[in-house]
UniProtKB/TrEMBL annotation:
Gene3D superfamilies: P-loop containing nucleotide triphosphate hydrolases. This is ABC-2 type transport system ATP-binding protein. Keywords: ATP-binding, Membrane, Nucleotide-binding, Transmembrane, Transmembrane helix, Transport. It comes from Flavobacterium cheniae. The keyword Transport applies. The lineage of its organism: Bacteria, Pseudomonadati, Bacteroidota, Flavobacteriia, Flavobacteriales. GO terms for molecular function: ATP binding; ATP hydrolysis activity.
Amino acid sequence: MVNHISNEKVIEVENLTKKFGDFTAVKGISFHVNKGEIFGFLGANGAGKTTAMKMLIGISNPSSGNANVAGFDVHTQSDEVKKSIGYMSQKFSMYDDLTVKENITFFGGIYGLSRKQIKKKTAELIEELQLGDITKSRVGSLPLGWKQKLAFSVSLLHEPKIVFLDEPTGGVDPITRRQFWELIYTEADKGTTIFVTTHYMDEAEYCDRVSIMVDGVIEALDTPKNLKKQFDVDSMNEVFLKLARNIE
């Protein structure tokens, strides 16, 4: 699985901290992500993973520490960070009342693509996803699985170095989840870095490396194979449960 990864670090995080008054949501985390890596960022609700991701994508200022994303400092160059990444939020972000084609055109414009580029990208996307006749359908009429695959593809229109996916397969059936991960693998093979949060522990098995956050701290970080060996278990779900018990 790891043959798509290079030694180039595209995310570097050092002692990154986020405080809200007296509460510290993210407590001095440090890690790096390589180009082309599928990096799983896991944790229970309230663990701090969403807060950490918001700092990395340039929409929340760190209280202290440093982070460099796609070659830009999140403190001083957040606008450049935003231009260099793709982002797919947990809540579906396409416009339901626009057609598939209209959504692609709209977001292509937001990403600064020319009409010629948008036309080319639209044709490629339609062929890649085998959208065919549904390009004139309103997005609101599509099944959730199609919406998610479309949202992922649209987040890649401007060919970002890194794509951040926040719970991308929430609520979809197992077959669609597997198809979605095939799209992720295809993109990683092109050299795109995938930073993904998920609460499905079986999906952690699909990642090249996995970070597990508990109460604002990264408590474990390694390949799924090494983590299972370290905790002497057979699945990532068991890793998570054993880690939680050890901390308690």
